[in-house]
Amino acid sequence: MDPQQLRARLRGVAITPVVPMSDDGQVDVEGIGELTRFLVGHGLSDDTGVLIPLSGTGEFMSLSDAEHEAVLAATIEAADGAVTVVAGANHMDTRGAIQRARRAQALGATGVMVGPPFYFRPTNAEILDHYRRICDALEIGVVLYNNCFATQVDLAVELLDELADLPNVVGMKESTPSAEKLLRVLRVVGDRIAVLSGYGEAREPQARLWGSPGFVSPMATVVPELSLELECRLRARDYEGAAAHARRIATLRDYLCGGEGGTYVGALKAGLTLRGLRGGSPRPPFQPLPAEQVRAIAAELECLGIETPVR
């Protein structure tokens, strides 16, 4: 697919799924397929959103290259062309990111989402070179990922202005905590690339009103129907209804996506298990969610009318 065709598909609910794992930490390939089909069966499609496996929510940082490939292959196979798959291809160095991105391209991903190198704080010149090399190595589209919590650098608007001109760059996930910065990014590059709001349901309908075509949602891994209902209201320009719905699901989002560090990964996997899917356990150092917090999620799901066959 031409990168600009991907840009047109970067809208709606961009779901970042967890990776189901067994209790001993092995990747559950069958569980990945089950989860992907669950999301498609609840309305995720090219018309309503995109699927972004192997993000931080997908524990990319703890996966070997072989596991990274297995997760993506299982996701693409189960999606079966129903929804665009943009693969996370993050790595601590440019060479590693290129290798993962090329592997994603070979497996049939429509695009890749890549952040700047992490651990050491890169300079703007290093970040620009990082993305230029990745773009030069690929034929598919590249989605920038600004996650200042993980990379120690908040991609500046001036740098994004340069990055948006790279030939393969067609979108970004902007996870800045600053609403003011998101508005500036949309104003400066929003006419060239699709800027997805990284704060998910919590920043809607504001982000849509400002021009963002979609939002990124870990929460939708567990309750795609609730996130897609929000998207439906946004597309209908029922902004009052969208705001009311966002408030209605805010407590569940806090339970599933709040907490420190990687706590939310365990919460999402617990939520999947409550829904009768194979969530499993997060990989250490992330820990399974304490029982009392699992009970709180179960109670809130019930309050919102979501069936939980496993209690």
Give an account of the 3D structure:
This protein is α/β, with parallel strands linked by helices and 311 residues long. The protein has a single domain, classed as Aldolase class I (TIM Barrel), CATH 3.20.20.70. 46% of the residues lie in helices and 12% in strands. It contains 14 helices and eight strands. It has helices at 3-9, 29-41, 65-79, 94-107, 124-136, 148-151, 157-163, 179-189, 206-210, 224-235, 239-248, 250-257, 263-274, 291-303, and strands spanning 12-15, 49-51, 84-88, 111-114, 141-146, 169-174, 194-197, 214-217. An eight-stranded parallel β-sheet has the order 7-6-5-4-3-2-1-8, with helices on both faces. β2 (49-51), α3 and β3 (84-88) form a beta-alpha-beta unit. α2 (29-41) runs parallel beside α3 and α3 (65-79) runs parallel beside α4. The chain is globular. 52% of the residues are buried.
